[in-house]
Design a protein that fits this description.
This protein is α/β, with parallel strands linked by helices. Helix content is 39%, strand content 13%. An eight-stranded mixed beta sheet has the order 7-8-12-11-10-9-13-14. It has a four-stranded parallel beta sheet with strand order 2-1-3-4, sandwiched between helices. The protein has a two-stranded antiparallel sheet with strand order 5-6. It is globular and about 75 Å long. The model has no long low-confidence stretch (mean pLDDT 95). Belongs to the IlvD/Edd family. It holds the Pfam family ILVD_EDD_N.
């Protein structure tokens, strides 16, 4: 394979003298321009801890590329912090940023004719955004995860950012003091790295290791681990190896590898956001994947990882236990793993599973004869409230059925006010609507609300459903991604205060106790609140597909 298969058109020949002049002026000499040009797509930002360290990490990636015979060119894209924007209007931009990340990497790579691309990511939407870009471009590429933050410590216990969100509800309920809240706040996020539990960032990092687009093991190394710079250097060398082998994302992103990714999500108790992101990646890659595939796989996959938010451990513990490869080994032993799926390392996922190095006595990943649950951590529910589907998280609690009166809120802020002022009662079904991909717009996460419900002591008695989505840190009986959404006159728009709603996981249904004809009449009369029509949010609202299709903007 010609290693300069794209960049020759940019750097060679008499007519490219002006381009070379520009590049020489910023330090690229003739030798550098004679080599393959590798795009280093960074998502570094100073607005959050998750991606804060990626600028420094990129240096080691670039050193590895140079040592392996390439010329790196780093460029940056946007990154929005879910945790920092949570509960504000800024959260509307989070899911939208996934599309902008993908678009910008695609544009720079197309414009500058890179021969290969390595993407550095960390916070929730930068991870699928980078992989969506690789799927679109289909040039040799690698995704490297920046790694997770270590846990904080408070009163002798490990804590994560989830504990801060839940402490807000506990403080509002008078269960902890203002000083307790301040102390938890000060301890929960000790430095750089993505949120510590099996929240969305670590869920997607594990899923993409299992899918094969990210190097298994090194990618999940913690952000502050002493080996992280060495892993970054090796990733730079790896992208050159991928280029030499001519391996493309389309070789890796297949139905089999996507099913492996879903296995990882189901077995680890991962974030419901994985449904959105894996559907989006599949569509970018042109691979058929349906929301019901998640239910089929999860129903036959045991929950094996004892990870927060429902369990005891965090991602740094998972890495120390042996990481994704150990989980792959368990799934291979069950005959569930598509073991011949190739990975970016040149080995199959089955080979990586066989080479897993499990720490003696580790308790993070359960043995097969002692699973946390016999089925996976998510389920897909339909019914008269969600004819296109909804996603419910099953990890971290035992509830599978709930019937109660609807408490209806037009948007997150109204609901948060009701929760923190003691207006939600045991048995209620909290309904938050007009927070979907188009109606929000941007499909905000509801961690502030769900954590406040738990902090108020209502986590075991209240259910919540929304056309928005949840954070990976959410726990409790929550159904999100209700589709169609309210702004598109989905049935969630027909719910009225006090009406009975039943969530039945075993029956895979979520239903409003109102006759179908009455629901149809209400929807015909429903006038949704105005949504954004200008700027990036307006563009997104006009273009975005249903959550059941991954909430992507190209169909």
């Amino acid at each position: 394979m010609d290693l300069k298969h794209r960049s020759r058109a940019l750097t060679e020949g008499r007519d490219r003298a002006a381009a070379r002049a520009y590049l020489k002026g910023i330090g690229y000499d003739d030798e550098a321009l004679s080599k393959p040009i590798i795009g280093v797509a960074n998502t570094w930002t100073e607005t959050m801890p998750c991606n804060f360290h990626l600028r420094a990490l990129a240096k080691f990636v670039k050193d590895g590329i140079k040592a392996a015979g390439g010329t790196p060119m780093e460029f940056n894209t946007v990154a929005i912090s879910d945790g920092i924007t949570m509960g504000t209007s800024g959260m509307k931009t989070s899911l939208v940023s996934r599309e902008v990340v993908a678009d910008s990497i695609e544009l720079v790579t197309l414009g500058h004719l890179f021969d290969a691309v390595i993407c550095l990511c960390a916070c929730d939407k930068t991870i699928p955004g980078t992989v969506m870009a690789l799927a679109r471009l289909d040039v040799p590429g690698v995704m490297l995860y920046g790694g997770s933050i270590p846990p904080g410590h408070y009163k002798g216990k490990d804590i994560t950012i989830m504990d801060v969100f839940e402490a807000v509800g506990a403080n509002a309920a008078g269960k902890i003091t203002d000083q307790d809240l301040a102390d938890i706040e000060a301890a929960a996020s000790p430095g750089a790295g993505a949120c510590g539990g099996q929240y969305t960032a670590n869920t997607m990092a594990m899923a993409f290791e299992m899918m094969g687009i990210s190097p298994i093991g090194p990618s999940l190394a913690p952000a502050q681990d002493a080996t992280k710079s060495d892993h970054a250097y090796a990733a730079g060398e790896l992208v050159m190896d991928v280029l030499r082998r001519g391996q493309r994302p389309s070789d890796l992103i297949t139905k089999e590898s996507l099913e492996n990714a879903i296995l990882a999500v189901a077995a680890s108790g991962g974030s419901t956001n994985a449904v959105l992101h894996l559907l989006a990646v599949a569509r970018e890659a042109g691979v058929p994947l349906d929301i019901d595939d998640f239910d089929r796989i999860a129903e036959s996959t045991p929950s094996l990882c004892d990870l927060k938010p429902g369990g005891r451990f965090v991602a740094t513990d998972l890495h120390a236990a042996g990481g994704t490869a150990v989980l792959a080994q368990r799934l291979q032993a069950l005959g569930l793993l598509n073991e011949y799926a190739p990975t970016v390392t040149g080995k199959t996922i089955g080979q990586h599973a066989q080479e897993a190095d499990e720490a003696p006595g580790q308790e993070v990943i359960r043995p097969l004869d002692n699973p946390i649950k016999k089925t996976g951590g998510i389920a897909i529910l339909r019914g008269n409230l969600a004819p296109e589907g909804s996603v419910v998280k099953l990890s971290g609690h035992e509830r599978r059925h709930h019937t109660g009166p609807a408490r209806v809120f037009e948007g997150e802020e109204a609901c948060m006010q009701a929760v923190t002022s003691g207006q939600i009662n045991p048995g209620d079904v909290v309904v938050i609507r007009n927070e979907g991909p188009a109606g929000g717009p941007g499909m905000r996460e509801m961690l502030a609300v769900t954590a406040a419900i738990v902090g108020e002591g209502l986590g075991d008695s209240v259910a919540l459903l929304t056309d928005g989505r949840f954070s990976g840190a959410t726990r409790g009986f929550m159904a999100g991604h209700i589709a169609p959404e309210a702004v598109h006159k989905g049935p969630i728009a027909a719910v009225r205060e006090g009406e009975s709603i039943t969530i039945d996981v075993d029956a895979r249904r979520i239903d409003l106790d109102v006759p179908d004809e009455e629901i149809r009449q209400r929807l015909a009369d429903y006038v949704p609140p105005p949504t954004m029509t200008r700027g990036v949010l307006g563009k997104y609202a006009a273009l975005v597909a249903s959550a059941s299709e991954g909430a992507i903007t190209q169909r």
